[in-house]
C-alpha cells in the first residue's frame, strides 16, 4: 500500500509544490490524481519511486520508507510510467527495452520470459520485438513504455499521463491494463487530465490544488463538487455535462451509467 504523511516538497528554486499532503492507498485501488497544471501531481507521483525525496513528512510504499531506499531498490516496488516515453526509453530494440526491468530486478529466466511475452501481448507489440523504439510512432513508443513498466510486475504502478499521446486503441490498452492490475491486487495511481478516462477506469479520484488535496472520493462524488471542482481547474467528464444539460438530477459519469439511466426513463 501507499502511505503518505504530511508531505511537503520545496524545489531548490523555492517553489513549494506540495504543502502537507497525506494519503493512504490500499492494494487493488485504482486512484486518479487530477488538478490544474502546476497543482503538484507529478511532484507527488515522483515521490513514490524516490526520484524526489520529501522536504518534510514521509512516503511509504509497500512498507518501505522511500527516504531509506535508493531509486534502484524502489524499482522493485513501484513501476513508473513517464509522461513522455522518450524520457524512459533507451534500449536498441523493443524486446530489450521490455526485458530490461525484469532482468534488472533479478527475476529468474522463465518468469522473465513470461512477463515480457505477456506485456508485449497486452500492448499489441508482438511482432515488433526487433524494431528500434525510435522507428515507432509516439503512440507506439507510449505502448513500449507501458509494456516495460508492466513487465516489471511491481505491487504498485504509477502512470503519469498514460493516455496523452496515445491513440484510441492505446487508451483501451491502458484501461484494460489498469483493470487487470487492480484485479490482481496491484495498486494503480495515475496522474491524468483526461476526465473521461478517469471516470470510466478509476474507483477513487484525488484532486490536488496548490499542493494540497482538496477532494478525495468516488468519481460520482468528486465530479458533483461543481464550483469547488471548477476552482481546482477541473472540468467534469463529457457525459456528466451532457446529463446535466438534459436536466437529469443525478448526472451519469460513465457510459454504462448513462445508458442505464436513459433506459430507465
Ligand atoms: N523542476 C522544477 N523546478 C522548480 N519548480 C518546479 C519543477 N517542477 C515543477 N515545479 C513547480 O512545482 C509546482 C508543481 O508542479 P508539478 O509539475 O508537480 O504540477 P502538475 O500538477 O504535475 O502539473 P502538470 O499538469 O502541468 O504536469 C509548479 O509550480 C511547478 O512550476
Structural write-up:
- This protein has 265 residues and is an alpha/beta fold.
- It has two domains: 26-50 and 68-236, Rossmann fold (3-Layer(aba) Sandwich); 237-265, no CATH class.
- It is 39% helix and 22% strand.
- The chain contains twelve helices and ten strands.
- The protein has helices at 41-48, 71-74, 85-88, 94-104, 109-122, 138-150, 168-183, 195-201, 219-223, 227-231, 238-245, 255-263, and strands at 2-10, 16-25, 30-34, 56-61, 64-65, 78-81, 156-160, 187-191, 204-209, 212-217.
- It has a six-stranded mixed beta sheet with strand order 6-7-8-3-9-10, sandwiched between helices. Strands 2-1-4-5 form a four-stranded antiparallel beta sheet, covered by helices on one side.
- Helix 5 (109-122) runs antiparallel to helix 6 and helix 6 (138-150) packs parallel to helix 7 (168-183).
- The chain is globular.
- Bound molecules: adenosine-5'-triphosphate.
- Residues 11, 13, 15, 17, 35, 37-43 line the site of adenosine-5'-triphosphate.
- One of its GO terms (cellular component) is ATP-binding cassette (ABC) transporter complex.
- Residues 2-235 form the ABC transporter domain.
- This is ABC transporter domain-containing protein.
- Belongs to the ABC transporter superfamily.
- It comes from Gandjariella thermophila.
Amino acid at each position: 500500500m501507499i502511505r503518505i504523511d504530511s508531505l511537503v516538497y520545496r524545489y531548490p528554486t523555492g517553489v513549494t509544490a506540495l504543502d502537507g499532503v497525506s494519503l493512504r492507498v490500499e492494494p487493488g485501488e485504482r486512484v486518479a490524481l487530477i488538478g490544474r497544471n502546476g497543482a503538484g501531481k507529478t511532484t507527488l507521483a515522483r515521490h513514490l519511486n524516490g526520484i524526489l525525496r520529501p522536504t518534510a513528512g514521509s512516503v511509504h510504499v509497500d512498507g518501505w520508507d522511500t527516504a531509506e531506499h535508493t531509486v534502484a531498490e524502489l524499482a522493485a516496488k513501484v513501476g513508473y510510467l513517464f509522461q513522455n516515453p522518450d524520457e524512459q526509453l533507451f534500449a536498441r530494440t523493443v524486446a530489450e527495452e521490455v526485458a530490461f526491468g525484469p532482468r534488472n530486478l533479478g527475476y529468474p529466466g522463465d518468469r522473465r520470459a513470461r512477463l515480457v511475452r505477456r506485456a508485449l501481448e497486452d500492448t499489441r507489440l508482438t511482432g515488433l520485438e526487433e524494431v528500434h523504439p525510435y522507428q515507432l510512432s509516439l503512440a507506439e513508443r507510449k505502448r513500449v513504455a507501458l509494456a516495460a513498466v508492466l513487465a516489471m510486475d511491481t505491487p504498485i504502478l504509477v502512470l503519469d499521463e498514460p493516455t496523452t499521446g496515445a491513440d484510441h486503441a492505446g487508451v483501451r490498452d491502458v484501461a484494460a491494463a489498469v483493470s487487470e492490475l487492480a484485479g490482481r491486487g496491484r495498486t494503480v495511481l495515475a496522474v491524468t487530465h483526461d476526465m473521461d478516462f478517469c471516470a470510466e477506469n478509476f474507483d477513487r479520484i484525488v484532486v490536488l490544488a496548490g499542493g494540497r488535496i482538496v477532494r478525495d472520493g468516488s468519481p460520482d462524488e468528486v465530479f458533483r463538487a461543481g464550483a469547488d471542482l471548477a476552482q481546482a481547474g477541473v472540468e467534469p467528464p463529457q457525459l456528466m455535462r451532457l446529463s446535466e444539460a438534459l436536466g437529469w438530477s443525478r448526472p451519469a459519469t460513465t457510459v454504462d451509467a448513462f445508458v442505464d439511466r436513459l433506459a430507465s426513463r
